[in-house]
């Protein structure tokens, strides 16, 4: 049955309309991974020299054993960020006489075929055979390898479990990441304990008492069984998220209750962002780019340039609209057909997008108010660009969304993922940044700086006041391109 699953996935890949693009991306990624592997192997062969240089006062074995646990903590964080969930479209198989254990076993075992599981062997094995084997003997070296295998398997399935739970509740990802950061800070910042000493305490004793290697092996086996049981119990995504509670308006976001059906749409999209890695990365990047102004305002060469302040104001208060909005409506591609045949009107759907963009841009503007430290004019420029983003940028983004038929699979990670990216995204980015400067620069060259800002703010305010007109226009425009967009979303 396992070979049947593999054959079906192989056929699904080659019959996909985007096979050529996907294959090209995978070839590029394979080459990059191969290059990285060569660096890892080289680091393994020269690890003794590296450790001696970094820790000149410690023995090589102590330095190595103290480094192992630190490595696996860093690996766990990397897995949560980058490792893909193993996928199989299980619904068709559940209607066939196939045991659930077979389906779940396939999903669980294929999770072992991850490039992350190669790193510890490529990095540590050369050192083990060159240093530990001659000093401690074959049994100690073998036990050390068993301990590494156990920790690698434990990390593998722990990361997958966290990612699966995060798909249902985005707060789990944030809480676990904060826990890892706090764990590291307590060591390297506040010195409450030493991860390095704890690591040596265990792995140093593994060399003396090889039976201790069974502890990480047991942890790995437990996490494997835990994942197997979790998948078997929650084979359907619907089962994972089903709650027996009574219906709550706006899906547990009370602040959106007053917006009715539009608020429900926004709440669902917020959950989509928090539960899926790629849209969540758009939100994370938007928060990180709020510090973008420090690059400009703290730079003496750019501090006096008002044009750069206009760009920074546009960028910081509208980055979420630009970054997340360039893939509109691809985020809903997997269920867009359902939206089109539901009772949700497309005008409410558009109002939900406007409300989401308005809320995100408003929060961004509030968070950038501390830049008033660099002068009240900075805050004025940010406010004018905030109005511009609400009144103009949102309309441009949604206009191009009516022409975007590229599908995005939310189950895939964000790293090295160019799915949904096309020429229209580059054109859109160009058009989002060009118009404000077409308006601003002529007034600036004539010496009317205040008037230039006033015109930008007036254009944004006009767009906000005439939003009902743009909603009707965009709705009519969508129906002209509706079927081409739907056809594009159906192509896998």
What features would you describe in this structure?
The chain folds into 2 domains: 19-241, no CATH class; 258-490, no CATH class. 75% of the residues lie in helices and 0% in strands. It is built from 23 helices and no strands. Helix 2 packs parallel to helix 7, helix 13 (261-275) packs across helix 14 and helix 19 packs across helix 23.
Question: How would the blueprint of this fold be written?
Answer:
Layout lengths: L1 H14 L3 H27 L1 H8 L5 H23 L8 H4 L5 H11 L8 H18 L1 H31 L1 H19 L6 H14 L5 H20 L3 H5 L19 H15 L1 H12 L3 H6 L2 H4 L2 H20 L10 H5 L5 H22 L8 H26 L21 H23 L3 H17 L1 H24 L2
Helix pairs in contact: 2-7, 4-8, 4-10, 6-11, 7-8, 8-9, 8-10, 8-11, 13-14, 13-19, 14-17, 17-19, 17-20, 17-21, 19-20, 19-23, 20-21, 20-22, 20-23, 21-22
SSE succession: HHHHHHHHHHHHHHHHHHHHHHH
Rg, Cα atoms, Å: 27 Å
The number of strands is 0
- Total number of distinct structural domains: 2
Share of β-strand residues: under 5%
The helix/strand class is mainly alpha
What percentage of residues falls in helices of 4 or more residues?
over 70%
- How is the biggest beta sheet arranged? none
User: If you average the pLDDT, what whole number results?
Assistant: 82
List segments where confidence is low: pLDDT < 50 over at least 5 consecutive residues: 237-251
Could you say which overall geometry the principal axes of the C-alpha atoms support?
A: globular
Helical segment count: 23
Question: How far from one another are the termini?
Answer: 24 Å
